[in-house]
Amino acid sequence: MAINTPNKQTSHIKREILARIIRAYLGDNFEEEVRMIPFEMRPKGSEVPYRCCIHKERAILRDRVIAGLGFDIEEVPDYEDLSSTAKKSTKREKPEEHPLTLLQTACNECVPARIHVTDLCQGCVARPCESACKFGAIKVENGKSRIDQTKCKSCGLCAQVCPFQAITKIIVPCENACPVGAIAKDEDGLTKIDHEKCISCGKCVSACPFGAVHKKSQIIDIIKNIKNGKKVIAMLAPAIMGQLPCTPAQLKQAILDIGFCDVVEVALGADITTKNEAAEFEERMEKGEEFMTTSCCAAYNELVEKHIPEIKPFRSDTKTPAYYTAELVKKEQPDALTVFFSPCVAKRREAMQNPNIDFVLSFEELGAWFVARNIQVANCEKSEFKKESSAQARNFAVTGGVADAVNSLLDENKKAKAHVINGLDKQAIRDLKKFAKNGKCELGNLIEVMACPGGCLGGSNTINSYRQALKQLSGYVENSPEIKEIIQ
After folding, report:
1. Same structural domain for residues 201 and 259?
2. Within this chain, do residues 274 and 213 fall inside the same structural domain, yes or no?
3. Quick one: 347 and 478 in the same domain?
4. 0.90 exceeded by pTM
5. CATH of the domain at 154
6. Which long-range contacts (CB under 8 A, 24 or more apart) does 60-64 make?
7. What is the domain range of residue 162?
8. Over pLDDT 70: what percentage of the chain?
9. What is the domain count for the chain?
């Protein structure tokens, strides 16, 4: 399974729009400046780099601005001026429920997914494609293979056996990436997200080459509270330490410079998660239970609730690092607002279910904020974190990190045999259902589930390449204390 690689072109466009929105909000004429964004980005007579004409380019930019303001694009009328949408964003009481929205104007209207016979077909005598198909969907007619799409199950066996590689599987990237079938074309051929099925894993966001699946930003809500003098505290997911070319202490200072009153590591909560999960695992094994899954991935938790309720008894009852960190912050400063800095979309769903987490900011949005304020994080002064967290907690961001952290607190004779699900896909879901049905997992007794290949460091909101991010994070982890020194 491929690790998410940020699309530089779409990421650049999103960052520029967000930076313009932020500058406008921090300026003197927010509504008018927002209205002008599509026209300033594509002025009359300028090059049209992606679409058929400047008018479509501007229409797509308008929709991206709507998402940047935090609204569902499909719910905003076509006739509504962006200045009106901007004004509404400042009046909003709370962020909208569903974190994803679709830009139909940017969608390339991909052809339906199917198995397709190309012109390379030779109509060979052996006809292995006919023999391979279990559904009678493929026949050779007039010297060419033909597929009856009403019978075809898209298993791909015919493509596997074709000696000329003349049969291909046409995919729709977003549909193909979604592990739960939550995104598909409707009867009108328009792509839709079924929010009842969606687990907010963000795979469709990364997969779409047109950037048509968009996150709804909460950045105006956050800046509004800072401008209004509210005490706003940043909570940094461990994966952020691999995203920007600076030290953690410089990153903290940069975040203070944009208006946050304090910055805490979510690794503090990960230490609590590790301690509680290790104790829970030990207790479950002593009771004779066959296996336990982790519970720190928000997309996995959504998957369990919506699609695999039968595995719920095997999922750890321990809360996520974000949960414990927000609890600590609210206990110490009950009047503060908390903002979780997230590598993934799913944390927005978790935040909506947790009254201690007020807002979620993606790494992309933070990067745009720095651009808007002309802050070079590598040139910032250093501001050390008040509380130290462990190497194991900071390594939660990497696949295998949670299981390793749990094992670090278990006695040698009680250590878990870990099985890691490195990214949720259809096969991983089938495996989880099988484990739940059988009541056991032959591969291990502690199943770590990460929705994103590579862990949080490969999340859909990350902005650095995985290899560079891992190298940077690893250096931070290596210079951190052991968890046993922290929790004692």
Report:
1. no
2. no
3. yes
4. yes
5. 3.30.70.20
6. 60/103, 60/105, 60/106, 61/13, 61/17, 61/37, 62/38, 63/103, 63/104, 63/105, 63/106, 63/214, 64/13, 64/14, 64/17, 64/103, 64/106, 64/211, 64/214
7. 114-170
8. 98
9. 3
Q: Which amino acid is at 268?
A: L
Flag whether 222 is in a domain. Answer: no
pLDDT-based confidence at residue 113 (cuts at 50, 70, 90): confident
Residues 212 and 239 in one domain: no
Question: Where does the pLDDT of residue 148 fall: very low under 50, low under 70, confident under 90, or very high at 90 and above?
Answer: very high
| Encoded tokens for 107 | 């969608």
